[in-house]
Amino acid sequence: MKTMKKNVKHLLLPPYIIKGLREIPWIKSSGQSGADDEIIELVADDLLLITYGTRGSTPFSGPECLRYGGNTTSYQVYSPKMPDNFLYLGDGGSGILEINQSVVKKCFAQGINIFTAPHEKVHQIIEQIINTYTHYHYDHLHTGAPLAGLFHANAVRKLIIGAWNPRSMFQNVFKRPIFPRDFNEMQASYSFYDIKDVRSSVLAFLPNGDVRELGISEFNSLLQQNSPQIKHKKISYYLCECLIVKCFPTDHPDPCTSYRYENYDENNHIVSCMTFMTDHDIRDTDYRENYFKAQVVGCDAIYIDGQYQDSNYIPGFGHGRVEMIGAMARDLKLPNVAIGHHDPTREDKQVDAMIELAKQANKGGEIESRIFGASDRMMLFVPSPARGRKGIVIGRMDFTVVGHIPSDTGPSSEVKGNYGCRDLTTCYQLQDHTKEAKSL
């Protein structure tokens, strides 16, 4: 088991995620919380997905959406095997401001101003953002990334990855007079990678922080070798040292990509895996189609778009139906399914009802899938099998409206949870659904 002792001071994760990891009984940690010597022991093949925004179409706020949140799509993938000062993000909806704030605060707490400090000093905390994009609709790009300080700091390099010319998409976002800065003023800190063919592309996130694209045929040939290596810039990396990302085109009015994140062991077997599939109009033929099955089967957890139910489904809008998702999870034996991209006008209790519809459609299979609603700031943690555990840990904010209190401005709600000093760690709750492998 390749254990990595991570100094919390250098982890590009929000405080409530770090606190949650420390509270998992089978994760070792040392040092006092918040101290310079605070250490968390992680394993190379541990895999975390954090959803900072799970709302579709437009940001939305109010007491009726406290539990699921109101930010639009953005997420983070964390792998201990990747460089500590690299930040791996997906999409750039309003949720991206959450991780942006966390990283900027971490820098300032160590006396580093990301806008004025020398580059080498900034790089002690954050050197590069690698930001993959499913697509470029307003709720996935315009409402978040252009407003995040990290995307304006010249000291922080940005690698933007996506299909259909991501450079032109960013040029269109940062443009006067609809935005106060023109892209020409900041382009020196940006580079772009245009995925050639989504259906046949595999991205290898390398241990030095670089990204290498392979064709699916080339990647499958690697899997037939003993101790396969991926060569990039005259350096070779073992497959088991890399985080592998497989692409899949989803059904959406404009082209959109799903990403599947995989860790492999020395014998070329997948040991941890998650898929992020948003903005996909799931069809009853999908789970009999090989390309779709290759993207979701065998995953420890998937995030999937479930904005509609059968009764209000709108064909052609490119969003999924919860009943179809439940049936798909049943037939493909998916263990954990997070349903997101919630309609912006849908209240928490209405999302709850939709999740129940998915659960009902899931009944009757060989296994009963764990189906739940995705929420802002949710963590899905798949531990490495080397830990001797199987399953996932789910972390999320525990906000509950417990009663109404009078107010001079009208009715308001008393909320369970503590926003004091903006300390969100006080109401972050974990659900450990893992079991010891030997007991399975």
Return Rg in Å. 21 Å
Q: Please give the domain count.
A: 1
Assign the CATH topology.
Metallo-beta-lactamase, Chain A
The proportion of strand residues reads: 25-35%
> How far apart are the termini?
20 Å
Strand line-up in the sheet with most strands: 9-8-7-6-5-4-20-22-25
Can you tell me the residue ranges where pLDDT is under 50 for at least 5 consecutive residues? Answer: none
Labels describing this entry:
30% strand; 440 residues; single chain; nine-stranded mixed sheet; eight-stranded mixed sheet; globular; Metallo-beta-lactamase, Chain A; 26 strands; alpha+beta; 17% helix
A few lines on this structure:
The protein is built from 8 helices and 26 strands. The chain is of the alpha+beta class and 440 residues long. Helix 7 packs parallel to helix 8 (348-362).
Account of the 3D structure:
This protein is α+β, with helices and mostly antiparallel strands and 440 residues long. The chain has a single domain (3-439), classed as Metallo-beta-lactamase, Chain A. The protein has 8 helices and 26 strands. It has helices spanning 15-23, 96-109, 119-122, 166-173, 216-222, 290-296, 322-331, 348-362; strands at 3-7, 29-30, 39-43, 47-53, 74-78, 86-90, 128-132, 157-162, 190-194, 201-205, 211-215, 229-232, 235-238, 243-249, 257-264, 270-277, 301-305, 336-340, 370-373, 378-382, 389-390, 393-397, 400-405, 412-416, 428-432, 435-436. Helix 7 packs parallel to helix 8 (348-362). The radius of gyration is 21 Å and the shape is globular. The mean pLDDT is 93.
